[in-house]
Amino acid sequence: MPRGLSLVCPCPPAGLVDVVGKKWAVCVVTLLGHHGALRFAPIQRSLPAVSPATLTSTLRSLEREHLVARVRISTDGRATGAYALTERGEALYRSLVPFASWLRAA
Amino acid sequence: MPRGLSLVCPCPPAGLVDVVGKKWAVCVVTLLGHHGALRFAPIQRSLPAVSPATLTSTLRSLEREHLVARVRISTDGRATGAYALTERGEALYRSLVPFASWLRAA
DNA sequence: CTACTCACTTCAAAGTCTGAAGTGCTCTTA
DNA sequence: TAAGAGCACTTCAGACTTTGAAGTGAGTAG
User: Fold this and answer.
1) Do A17 and B48 touch (CB under 8 A)?
2) How buried is residue B92: exposed, middle or buried, by Cβ count under 10 Å (0-12/13-18/19+)?
């Protein structure tokens, strides 16, 4: 390779590195992709090593990037809704499926 | 959904969360997958936002998990080698290809 | 010889994550 | 209807990670 030359950066745009770079973001998207809309508590139970503070912050980042949105679950009269993937989030989830299988298999 | 029940955890085993959870690990693996073996400096130039300290720490984690290894480049008599994906690292890279395209397209 | 690149290391400051605790609210069950 | 459980967080201190700038010693090109 010629010296001093820079390669193409394979990194996502600034806004996304900070979301996808979050330790649990990929897990949350995978979880919602598998199970559909979920409330806070079930997400928390499925990711035993995440603290509620971190989970809140992860969910807010994902909302800011329009990857997840809050939805109301019809079978439930609660004030706050559940979290579901948006269209954009679904696309991300589909791209993550092979990665998620590798992780589980590894 | 029944209350109080926990879902399957979609998370990788403990050792891997801490590697893949590193902010730049996925970028480094993608970069090495695209370009083959690379030295420290070109990797650093391709990931402009990473500091050398963080890059060193990321590479060490990836080595510890046997995802990258140091190799000697024949065209170069330097003491330290370049970094290349292992077999395991290649498998990870293949699983990351759709994710990487989504990130670039997003 | 001199200047440059390489592959790091060091340091302080900023940011992120953990783990435990606590808050106010909404259900369910007796 | 009152007690208790679960929900969706928030707060806090301490630990860990990343940044950004600077510096180091060894190798290489002119």
Assistant:
1) no
2) buried
